[in-house]
């Protein structure tokens, strides 16, 4: 099994923060929400990166505290129904 080097982990963390900041900076005036989808289907201990998951939670808890209460876990089906139309749903969300 190949493990990420510590430098790779840091680069992944930097990319994650960059993408969140970029999404927030592109919000129109008066809008305060972004949708981030993290697909955990097939997630298990054999392929998990708990350090990165911990980082994601810490990012929201410490750096975006007013947004941390907006983080929720839901199924692909509920994401499809709540956020997409039949025309915009990504292919990998379809049954």
Automatic annotation (TrEMBL):
**What name goes with this protein?**
CRAL-TRIO domain-containing protein
User: What are the residue boundaries of the CRAL-TRIO domain, all occurrences included?
Assistant: 12-74
**Which InterPro entries does the annotation name?**
CRAL-TRIO_dom, CRAL-TRIO_dom_sf
Q: Which SUPFAM superfamilies match?
A: CRAL/TRIO domain (SSF52087)
What PANTHER family does this protein's entry cite?
SEC14P-LIKE PHOSPHATIDYLINOSITOL TRANSFER FAMILY PROTEIN (PTHR47556:SF1)
